[in-house]
Design goal:
It is built from 9 helices and no strands. The protein is mostly helical. It has one domain. The radius of gyration is 19 Å and the shape is globular.
Length: about 260
């Protein structure tokens, strides 16, 4: 595997802005998907993929059994929005799917957090040849830090998600609610998975947020790609390890570009 200087895109004009763009952010997820399928990392995928299969199987069952009920709840036939059901149906369907997906993703990430931290460390070592300074030595050592990190992100999510979900109940505002929910999920999934490589460098939550704001558009592109991949059958089983690997590539690339800009 080539080291970071050869594996990642090179900067042609310096200083280069860290606003890498939506497509560049999405590209990191594809790079992560390719990377985890290479020899040397596959053994770190067993637990995350097993957890994902179990979680998403439950999600698929729940979605098929409850979707019509949820759809009628948010867009009842007695509402004036009934006339726009054919327009709102795909948006509301996507929003409901994201709500369900996130609920199950929280559970999956809580269970897999220690293993994801190790995977992020191994990916960074593969890219740069150097292990991150605060990576867990084994999954047992990562249990407590991983759970605390996931709970902190869960609090951040709930504080913002609950008001957004309430917008689905406000007549008229319901039209904008799916778009806001999708954008928020893209941002949060970027934060969710970039936490692993950044935590391996001892970055606290506030510092992580500051780092993401420097690459806001790339973060949204990356999180949006994660959201899309979650909705694709079969690939959604790989989304967690692919997102961890992609986030690590994102982190390493952003650090390299920061160093080039400072030169």
């Amino acid at each position: 595997m080539k080291k970071l200087s050869a594996a990642l895109p090179r900067s042609t004009n310096r200083p280069r802005r860290l606003e890498l763009g939506l497509l560049t952010g999405a590209g990191y997820l594809l790079q992560g998907l390719r990377l985890i399928l290479r020899p040397g990392l596959k053994r770190y995928l067993i637990v995350p993929i097993t957890i994902n299969i179990l979680i998403f199987s439950g999600l698929i069952w729940l979605g098929f059994n409850q979707f019509e009920l949820l759809f009628d709840r948010f867009l009842p036939e007695t509402s004036w929005l009934h006339y726009f059901r054919w327009v709102l149906w795909p948006l509301l369907a996507l929003a409901i799917l994201l709500i369900l997906f996130y609920t199950f993703t929280v559970i999956a990430n809580l269970l897999a957090a220690p293993f994801n931290g190790i995977l992020a460390a191994k990916v960074e070592q593969t890219l740069t040849g150097v292990a991150p300074p605060e990576s867990p030595d084994n999954w047992v050592a990562g249990v407590i830090p991983g759970l605390l990190s996931e709970l902190r992100k869960l609090v951040y999510f709930l504080i913002r998600a609950i008001p957004l979900l309430l917008l689905f109940l406000v007549p008229g505002v319901q039209l904008a609610a799916p778009f806001l929910w999708i954008a928020f999920n893209a941002w949060f999934f970027a934060l969710e998975y970039l936490d692993y490589p950044m935590s391996n460098h001892g970055m606290l939550f506030k510092e992580q947020m500051q780092q993401l704001r420097k690459t806001r558009m790339a973060a949204l592109g990356f999180g949006g790609a994660v959201t899309l991949m979650m909705l694709i059958p079969i690939l959604n089983f790989l989304v967690m390890p692919a997102a961890v690997a992609g986030a690590t590539i994102f982190w390493c690339s952003s650090n390299r570009l920061s160093g080039e800009s400072a030169e």
